[in-house]
Here is the input.
Amino acid sequence: MWKVGDLTIDGRVVLGPMSGYTSEAYRLFMKPFGTALSYTEMVSDSAMMHNPRSDEYLMYGSCPFTGTQVFGSDPERMAIAAEECLKRNPNTDLFDVNMGCPVEKVVRRGAGSALMTDPARCGEIVRRIKEKTGIPVTAKIRLGQGADSMNFREVIAELEAAEVDAITVHARTRKERYAGIPHYDLMRDLREEMSVPLIVSGNVFSLDDAIGYTEITGADAVMVARGGIGNPFLVTQIDRWFRDGTRLPNPTVSQQVDWCLELADMLIAEKGEEMAAKKLRSIAPKFIVGCRHSREFRYRLATEIDDRASLEAILEEVRERLGDRVVRTLGYRTSVPEDD
Ligand SMILES: Cc1cc2nc3c(=O)[nH]c(=O)nc-3n(C[C@H](O)[C@H](O)[C@H](O)COP(=O)(O)O)c2cc1C
Here is the structure.
């Protein structure tokens, strides 16, 4: 158990914010696997203020605890946006401030990872949002802009002075985006230096990744992001190990098929069949990554899903051919060796 402000978080796995993925349906799907805290897709301060449609992205309250992630650059505007958002959705659990996004159109307006060039502003944003909303506020940062400007310690100090309630550190720089080996070595015993909970992010693809990164940094929790796409059971493996030291085996292909269909139904209910089918073309193949002789099926899942019926037809073929096998290595990793 650990605390984010007055919220008691029971579990060591946090679901990372991912735009295009972590909609309400996805968060609810992942929850029973053991995510103790989830984050919405990022939403800009102006969308939060002026566009009621942004509520569709966020959908509060049905998946406790969920952090609503805001991006922007002006402390006052961001605080007003959060206040508006909370008024419309009084059961919002907490806010998270995006200080890590490397995408050009976000950075160009001084938001996301660009904020880290101005540590005082990072603190000011947290301070103002806390003042205006009175609920917990967390922040998600990177190591810095590049190898020669890793100022995460300075940013952490400003955030702590602003009474941030927890900090996620993605162990890469803005320049590295999402590629390459994260630099956990630079975060050795970081938690000991901090006065608030630390969540670590970056390449959490296996239980051993989670154990290793926690040992190095002393983190309170690990963030599962890409590693959970197509491998929700990773969350259960990590959660269970941290609870009682049990190492659960990987699931069978047949279980993966069941979970993929469950997620499909939730996405269809949320987005409609056509939109959900598009999304599933990128998600469904990942459920059978790391499984021998699955390459042809992965290709078909990526190209032939038009609706639930076509998804189910392919997945049932997968089950018939490969169902009893235990999946070897799962997840997003592009380095998974080709298997057939
Ligand atoms: C498709 C995608 C969308 C993402 N969207 C967000 C976002 O909206 N806000 C955010 O703070 N991080 C976002 N991230 C970063 C993740 O939360 C996470 O920190 C990052 O992927 C590193 O973890 P991983 O290597 O385990 O995937 C996104 C990552 C991906 C791959």
